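User:
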Amino acid sequence: MILTGWAARYKSLADGRRQIVNFVLPGDTCDAQIYLLERLDHSIAALTSISYAELDRDRFESLLAADRRLAEALWCETLSNAAIQREWTLNLGRRDAFERVAHLLCEVMARLRVVGLIDGNSCAFPITQMDLADATGLSVVHVNRTLQELRSAGLIVLRDRTLTIRDPEALMDAALFDPDYLHYVSTD
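Assistant: Predicted structure:
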């Protein structure tokens, strides 16, 4: 489980091009059930300094057997991750560049809000434009233009690795963002 820091889950082609398929944020596990397989079919890279907790297989299995709520929580996270993957597929296949980037910003804010890492409408945002490009299927130039559009529209401020959403409702509308796929219970 990631305790602090940000990571990216990605796949790469033989020529080095990569597609980020998810961001791993504090409170997320990194494929908790992966021990059931021989190896990962993807990679995980730290985007910032990371601290994490790790359990060996025997300890993990005994905890799951002893605490049904823990097992259910991990299944819920697995189902939530699958829902996020479906939303990211929709993002790549049907949303335009403005909607893609706006949607990703909304998702990150929603996920960080649940773990208490939002200050008003601002959060740390260590994701580079290259990372955004690799997550949204856009070129770095297109991401840069799209971020400028979001700024010009008065929706975001992105400065010093901090994201501020100036008008959350307007950004969610622009992104066609419906947080229901995250399956979070509101903590507000």
